[in-house]
């Protein structure tokens, strides 16, 4: 079972002030390629997995933004860590 939930809002600075949505889509594609469970929400994306792996994904997301030409990136990250197990479903079941 996963031991962490990590939510990330990635805010890339674009070279010429372009719309950031295609860049955010590319960042989400990095998450998709990783194979971890995730959920896209309006202002952030939440991933479920092992904390070390999730931080590595965040690093890859930032590297992808640089590869796409972004001179800087802000990554706002929230972490829920529970060694016995963490689950999006358990935390939100009473709301569904």
Describe the model:
- The chain has one domain (4-88): Alpha-Beta Plaits.
- It is built from three helices and four strands; from the N terminus they run βαββαβα.
- The protein has helices at 21-34, 51-67, 88-92; strands at 4-13, 37-40, 45-49, 72-81.
- Strands 2-3-1-4 form a four-stranded antiparallel β-sheet.
- Helix 1 runs antiparallel to helix 2.
- The longest helix has 17 residues, at 51-67.
- It is elongated, with a radius of gyration of 14 Å.
- Compressed to H and E, one letter per element, the order equals EHEEHEH
Give the beta-strand count: 4
Q: What is the CATH T-level topology?
A: Alpha-Beta Plaits
Strand content: 25-35%
Query: Helical amount among residues, as a percent range?
Result: 25-40%
> If strands are numbered along the chain, what order do they take across the biggest sheet?
2-3-1-4
CATH architecture level-2 label: 2-Layer Sandwich
Structural class: alpha+beta
Radius of gyration: 14 Å
How many helices? The count is 3
Query: Span between N and C termini?
Result: 21 Å
Low-confidence stretches: none
SSE blueprint and pairings:
Blueprint: E1 4-13, H1 21-34, E2 37-40, E3 45-49, H2 51-67, E4 72-81, H3 88-92
Antiparallel strand pairs: 1-3, 1-4, 2-3
Helix pairs in contact: 1-2
């Amino acid at each position: 079972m996963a031991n962490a939930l990590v939510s990330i809002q990635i805010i890339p600075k674009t070279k010429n002030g372009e719309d950031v949505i295609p860049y955010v889509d590319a960042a989400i594609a990095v998450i998709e390629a990783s194979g971890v469970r995730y959920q896209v929400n309006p202002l952030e994306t939440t991933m479920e997995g092992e904390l070390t792996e999730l931080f590595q994904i965040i690093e890859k997301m930032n590297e992808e933004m640089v590869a796409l030409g972004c001179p800087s990136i802000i990554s706002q990250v929230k972490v829920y860590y529970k060694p016995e197990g963490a689950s999006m479903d358990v935390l939100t079941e009473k709301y569904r």
